[in-house]
Amino acid sequence: MIPDPNTKEGREEIARRAKKRKEEASEAKRRAKDNPDAEPSGKLTNPNHTDRVRDRKSDD
Prior knowledge:
The protein is mainly alpha-helical. The chain has a domain at 1-39. Helix content is 63%, strand content 0%. It contains two helices and no strands. The chain is elongated and about 70 Å long. The protein starts with 7 loop residues before the first helix and ends with a helix. The model has no long low-confidence stretch (mean pLDDT 78).
């Protein structure tokens, strides 16, 4: 149900939802700053022979 902004109850519901979303967003932001992903960056696999041949051709 969408709260009616013209009634007192509707305005209270909108304020409650906004507060809840703001708290959730701040929690997600805190987690993102405190626990950065520990995933390695860069290429994780060795190139196969076909990839190496393509690389040599593009260098010519």
